[in-house]
Amino acid sequence: xxxxxxxxxxxxxxxxxxxxxxxxxxxxxxxxxxxxxxxxxxxxxxxxxxxxxxxxxxxxxxxxxxxxxxxxxxxxxxxxxxxxxxxxxxxxxxxxxxxxxxxxxxxxxxxxxxxxxxxxxxxxxxxxxxxxxxxxxxxxxxxxxxxxxxxxxxxxxxxxxxxxxxxxxxxxxxxxxxxxxxxxxxxxxxxxxxxxxxxxxxxxxxxxxxxxxxxxxxxxxxxxxxxxxxxxxxxxxxxxxxxxxxxxxxxxxxxxxxxxxxxxxxxxxxxxxxxxxxxxxxxxxxxxxxxxxxxxxxxxxxxxxxxxxxxxxxxxxxxxxxxxxxxxxxxxxxxxxxxxxxxxxxxxxxxxxxxxxxxxxxxxxxxxxxxxxxxxxxxxxxxxxxxxxxxxxxxxxxxxx
Length: 401
Description:
Elements: H1 21-25, E1 28-30, E2 39-42, E3 54-57, H2 63-71, E4 75-78, H3 82-97, H4 113-131, E5 134-138, H5 153-160, E6 167-170, H6 171-186, E7 188-190, E8 195-197, H7 209-217, E9 225-229, H8 235-242, E10 247-252, H9 255-268, E11 274-278, E12 287-292, H10 315-324, E13 328-339, H11 341-344, H12 350-359, E14 362-370, H13 385-390, E15 393-400
Parallel strand pairs: 2-6, 3-4, 4-5, 9-10, 9-12, 10-11, 12-13
Antiparallel strand pairs: 1-2, 5-6, 7-8, 13-15, 14-15
């Protein structure tokens, strides 16, 4: 999935007042008095600033005390057994997710889909912030100096680059990158490829099979050349190559995604057909087939990986639609893969989408729908169940008017 230009450092975040230019590039967290070193490099994938206050946490700290401090934005630097830290994180999750009665009578909440969506996002952001306060120390080579700690050196290096000095990150982020490392090793089975795609850390995995199936099953307008705009893991470029397209140019502007796509294309044996290039949206030239699966929800991402789902101001969607005519060969087709969940959430209307297409000098040749199969679409307890249960993913075949 195409994203805004990658930042030079994945751990980048707001610098604290008075820091040097070096620490502004690599943010630091200041540790409690008496700790050695007194500060360490700070890692936060979402660019969050380090906690301004940090205290030592160990097995003597109760879950209630830890929850109170974390809720206040106090960092808890863990200094005991690693597995006990995982248990404490689970205890914090239970406290965060526990329903609470309001202290005073409140006005009835706005129940419109858009209001429910924004309320859900706010709750999720607050939850993530509280849980991110449980911190884990790392040595310069990413060894975790705690009892029963896993060997996360390879996972950390994949996500953060080579180790340089002692650092600190949240336990929640560490568990996420360990999970991403396992996904990268194991891969994600893609039935349309009869093979696995191996997502890298920070690159959205092709777990939504409906859009892949739509590309695999729609009639090709030509087999000479295709552009895959915002290739992500490279899955759609690989599908096109497998279907017989002689040459595919796949674009990306995120460094992790470029490396990921090239790795997958090489693994699958399509390096002679697929070229992964760095570009913001379109490569140079024209093609008879141009495919794009932009982020589906016009909202602000809160972390880099969310740029595959949230498209602030519909930047990528509008960029693809508005630039398509200049890159399509006569008689060619642009395939726009888009869920209508934004419509069910009240964030965009079908009329607005059609106006974008018409205003760009395009027309809808045909469309094909697929209903999502992910578990949340069938979970009535999900806060966005009404929208998810009605969601439909569409392949819009667009042509020049």
